[in-house]
Amino acid sequence: MEFQDVVRTRRMHRRFTGEPVSADAVDRITRNAVRAPSAGFSQGWAFVVLDTAQDRDRFWAASTPGTAERSARDMSAWLAGMRTAPVIVLALASKGAYLRRYAEQDKGWEDLDEARWPVPFWHVDVGMASLLMLQTAVDEGLGACFFGVPPEHVPAVRAELGIPDEYEITGVVAVGHPADGGAKGSPTRRRRKPLDEVVHRGGW
After folding, report:
1. CA 186, 191, 195, 197 torsion: positive or negative?
2. What count of Cα atoms within 13 Å lies in the side-chain half-sphere of residue 41?
3. 3-198: which CATH topology?
4. Nearest CA to 83 among 105, 58, 110?
């Protein structure tokens, strides 16, 4: 697929068919993820792939207990659709990997002071890796959706999947063959801003 077509057609899919995703496609999605840029080539990322029904059920049980019932808005349609995804990939970030990398001799910092960082590049870089996964899914003829784990459920997910303390959950990518239905996304309720509202040439 042409790159511009990948960019133009990418969207968040929230329901999937029962057709399995090939192991080759999953491998390509993760291989492309690690081609993302990372500050200092720190590569402080890790990915947990859940592609069996048992492992996916473990994730959903830990990350969404009672979500549909307790949420201020009805999440039942979202959850019912997302649970049809045959592949779940947790994208993780290690802040420590970045702090340690920039304390190395070629970077010149002599401490691990987090205040040196203008923004948390560990999450920025994992976000870029996640976008590459979303784009690769489109190029594979698949659909995908990026979402987060509610903060109150992060400890349960970490414990269930054995995620080391070193890593934080930046987000989750669900992958599968797109199906009709599923929760409607915000683009159905909001217009895309025109370029002249967001692109400022030569200054603001």
Report:
1. negative
2. 3
3. NADH Oxidase (3.40.109)
4. 58
Name the one residue in this structure whose structure tokens are 């207990």. Answer: 65
Give the DSSP letter string of 44-97. -EEEEEE-SHHHHHHHHHHH-TTHHHHSSS--HHHHHHHTT-SEEEEEEE-HHH
Three-state DSSP class for 178?
strand
SS3 category, 179: coil
The answer on pLDDT for 31 being more than 80 is yes
For residue 28, the SS3 value is helix
Quick one: DSSP state of residue 192? P
Higher pLDDT, 126 or 111: 126
Per residue in 59-74, pLDDT (tens digit) is 999 999 875 555 556 7
